[in-house]
Amino acid sequence: MKKRIVSILSVFVLATLTIALGGCSGDKTGGSSKIVVGIAQDLEDSLDPHKAVAAGTKEVLFNVYEGLLKPDPDGNLIPAVAEKYEASEDGMSYTFTIREGIKFHNGNPVTAEDVKYSIEKSAGMMGDDPLISAFSLIKSVDIIDESTVSIVLSEPNMEFPSYLAMTNSAIIPADNENPDTEAIGTGPYKIVSRSPQENIIMESFDDYWGDKAYIKDVTFKVEANADTIVMDLLGGSIDMFPRLTTTQVSQLNDNFEVYEGTMNLVQALYLNNSVEPFNDIKVRQALCYATDIDNILELAFDGKGSPIGSSMFPSFGKYYMPELNDVYTYDVDKAKELLKEAGYENGFDMKITVPSNYQPHIDTAQVLVEQFKKIGVNAEIDLVEWNSWLSDVYTNREFESTVIGVDASTMTARALLERFRSDADNNFINFSDPRYDEIFDMAVSTTDDAESTVYYKQLETILAEDAANVYLQDMAEFVALNKKFEGYTFYPMYIQDISKIKPAAAQ
Amino acid sequence: MNKPEWMKNRKFVTGIVITAIVVILSIIGTFFTPYDPNAMDASAKLAPMSAAHLLGCDNFGRDIFSRIMSGMGTTLIVAIGTVLIGVMGGTVVGAFTGYYGGVIDEVLMRFNDAVLAFPSILLALVFISILGSGKYNVIIALGIVFVPSYARIVRSEFLRCKNMDYVKSAKLIGVSDLRIIFVHILPNAYKVILSSVAIGFNNAVLAEAGMSFLGIGVQPPDSSLGRMLSEAQTYLFIKPSYAIISGSMIVLMIFGFSMLNEGMEEWSDA
Description:
- The complex is a heterodimer.
- Chain A is α+β, with helices and mostly antiparallel strands.
- Chain A is built from 14 helices and 21 strands.
- In chain A, strand 15, helix 10 (359-373) and strand 16 form a beta-alpha-beta unit.
- Chain A has a domain at 266-474: Dipeptide-binding Protein, Domain 3 (Dipeptide-binding Protein, domain 3).
- In chain A, the strands form 6 sheets. A 6-stranded mixed beta sheet of chain A has the order 14-18-13-17-15-16. In chain A, strands 1-10-9-8 form a 4-stranded mixed beta sheet, with no helix packed on it.
- The longest helix of chain A is centred in the first third of the chain and has 28 residues, at 2-29.
- By secondary structure, chain B is mostly helical.
- Chain B has one domain: MetI-like (MetI-like fold, Orthogonal Bundle).
- Chain B contains 9 helices and no strands.
- Chain B has helices at 10-31, 64-100, 102-117, 120-131, 135-161, 165-172, 177-213, 225-232, 240-269.
- Chain B starts with 9 loop residues before the first helix and ends with a helix.
- In chain B, 41% of the residues are buried.
- The interface between A and B is medium-sized, with 24 and 21 residues.
């Protein structure tokens, strides 16, 4: 009996050894032409670019799909499927010339029919709900000739091209019957296989029109458990992980290069402007004065992060107004005074609802609770699941305050500022200011870029002066990349561009 | 000089000493801690153990010793509350079903079985999702989950006692059912209930720690042992002492109660 156990054990030991050794040899030979990227969530919604809603899905699909245009790392629009485009003077129609010789992953050339099909599909003309609200402006998509397509709008819109650079408006073949599962695009990588909750395997696309990807094989590995990320990086089962916390970064060793960028999120204590006491501007301003952003960064983020003063982050250079950071400087006395004027001399009780799966927001809320104590405001944290947060806070607006980060779906100021229109569907803080609505309408309707920038800046100033929310920071983003690779590039959007990563030069 | 009887029982003495330390620390912790357990200090982030901070500081520069003191109090209150609800509910259900039997017994006990069939943490999760999270809701949720096991224990005691001569005699002289249940039978069942209370206490401490660890128990910034352990896991490599201390406190608490329980059992058997 004993002998048998020993022999079984030795078989096990041998088996694990071979597996371990096999891992080693694979690592040495294929070291740099293969990269494993860790992602926090699986692509559960859909591989169909027109149906992908989760930011985590879109950042991966960015490598597979392209729109007529695409963003570059500096935030400019560059031609992609379209070689060039022309806007009519009145901003009512746009004409696109399809790039010559561009092919889909299945080898077929991209035709004008494919473009018409894709735009109409993503605009909801085929029955699906459109994910891009601005696409409701599209009156028709007309094929001019084999390589020219014209999009006609029902009203002038200057920012229209930026909506064509989203994953949600990607060009896909018209003859693909199962876009949900069979991903065919024009991007630098094509999907080879997908194992739900495990990984997505991609391979570089040989007939890509632009600069081809440096690394041939890419595996996106789902890392559902945040606690194992560091161990997997150190152990070598993943080579790269975007969006680490400072704590995780501090546990990495010399084998990793850490790239520091920004998350491009507006992190704030969002206040429900229609519930007491936050319907009083003085109370909101008092909270702004009572908040010491530097202290929050110091305590919860190791000093990393860029303070912001309105719903705009630094990477939107043209619209960003650094001077708004100084509208409310940390001043406890002033805060107390404002509370007194508002009739809350002895402070009040408030509840901060925080999604329990976002540690940075929980940490921020904990520091805020301490800071508000100094002005007599007794804040209590209520941790809720992400789904409850979405339904209770975001959809039903049944909350007092919440700490969250809001991102921009396109590289336009409008994407960040439209939600504060009093009648916007996603105005979850119930902000309402007639002046704001008026200026917003002017900003959208003008066709002059400089003029609209001025209007958008006025809107940001209103948000800051009205203390719509307690604006905190654009969080720092840390990307760990194994030193076997180099060249990680940040975008001003929620994107992971693997095609720019290359094997490190021999040392 | 002869030692008193209870001091000869080593398990009991160990249990009493550990439990006393835990209880005294947490009682002091509710009135006084060296530092405000929630006060943050950027200059003391993850500070090591020192004279100023006996057990060091956590990621927000909060004094770990102070947080342990107040956290043990929270855990203790939750455990006491849970066992109280569980024992009271369980005794009432168990006493009536055991004494009367019949249809009510059948229905309640099958319901009991159904509740027991669920993993207790899962069931508590269901209650938490209905009631909302927070210290007091955890007490209620865990309390309800604990009722069936006590009900079963008390019921079996009542089944054993109800046909004994003293109960029959009491019935003969016309004592009311309620009086028989609570004045005559219940005092005879106390030994069994008492030892299950100690075990229940351990389970409650573990359940609270588990739920706070999962983030549905005590809400931040308040401390509890489970919450601290959960916060410590991020810093396992940088500051292992944080996790070790919070974890050891849970172990210590449970060890103390277990020893107390075993000691008591040995003592009563002797």
